[in-house]
Amino acid sequence: MIDTTPFINARTARVLAFGAHPDDLDFGAAGTVAALTAAGVEVQYCIMTDGDAGGFDDRDPELTAKLRHEEQKQAAAKVGVSTVHFLGERDGFLEANHDVMRKVVRLMRQVKPTIVIAMHPERKWERIQAAHPDHLACGEAVTRAIYPAVENPFSYPELLAEEGLEAYKVPWLWLCGAPQERENAYVDITEFFDKKMDALRSHFTQHPDVGAMENYVLQQCEENAQSAGLAQGKLAEAFHVVAVNASDTIAGF
Question: Of 189, 187, 192, 176, whose CA–CA distance to 78 is shortest?
C-alpha cells in the first residue's frame, strides 16, 4: 500500500481530475479531493462528456446536459473545486481517439498538474456497471495522453506552434474505479465523508433512490478502509497509483 499522506501534507502544487460524466469524480474521488483542497492544494475538474444520456426523467437531452453541468459545478464547489472544464463529448460515445486525446493533452499542458486523477481503463468484472464504456475510454484517453503524448514535443505539434503549449511531464497518475487487484493506495476520508456525500447529493437528476445510493457509497468506503488496514469506523477511497515520472524514471518515447 502506498501512503498518500505526503501528497496531501506537502501542499501539492496542482491536481487535474478527469471524469467521464458529471458525478463520476464524486463517486470515485470527492473525499480525497476535499482532503486535498482543505490542505491548500488546487484541484481542477475536467468532465469529458455532457452526461446528456443520464437520468431517469423524460427530458430533452440538451436540457439534461445543462442541468448536469450545473449539478457538477455545485458538487465541485462543495469539495473546494472552483474550476470545472467540460470537453463536450456525447454521453455514451466517448472514445480514446486523437480528437479527444488532443483536448486532454492541451489541458494537461495548460494546467501542468502534479497529479492527474482519472477513471481506470480496465474493466471491473465484479460489477460491470462500474465499467461503463465511457469510463474505460476516459481512463484510456488520459493514460495514453500522459504517456507519451503530453511529454513528447512531437505529439500534436500544433499545440506548441499555435498555442505555445510546451511538452510537460506529469509526475503521478491516480486511477479510481480500479479492479480490486490493481488498488495499491488508499486515502482516509473519514473527516471528509460528509462533504463527499453532499457533493453526490448535488446530482439530483441521477439518484431516484438517494438512500440506496448513500448506503452503497458508505459500504464501499468501509470496505476500502478495511482493505487499507484502517481502524474500524474509518472510511477510505481506493486508487491505483502510478508513478509516471519519478526520480528513477528512464526517459524515452
Answer: 192
- HEC profile for the chain? CEECHHHHHCCCCEEEEEECCCCHHHHHCHHHHHHHHHCCCEEEEEEEECCCCCCCCCCCHHHHHHHHHHHHHHHHHHCCCCEEEEEEECCCCCCCCHHHHHHHHHHHHHHCCCEEEEECCCCCHHHHHHHCHHHHHHHHHHHHHHCCHHHCCCCCCHHHHHHCCCCCCCCEEEEECCCHHHCCEEEECHHHHHHHHHHHHCCHHHCCCHHHHHHHHHHHHHHHHHHHCCCCCCCEEEEEEEECCCCCCCCCC
Residue 252 CA, distance from chain mean position: 26
* First CA to last CA distance, the chain: 29
Q: Which domains does the chain have, with CATH numbers?
A: 2-243 (3.40.50.10320)
Least Cα distance to 74 among 59, 84, 64, 85 occurs for 84
Confirm whether pTM is higher than 0.85: yes
pLDDT digits (tens, 9 = 90+) for 29-83: 999 999 999 999 999 999 999 887 765 666 677 888 898 899 999 999 999 999 9
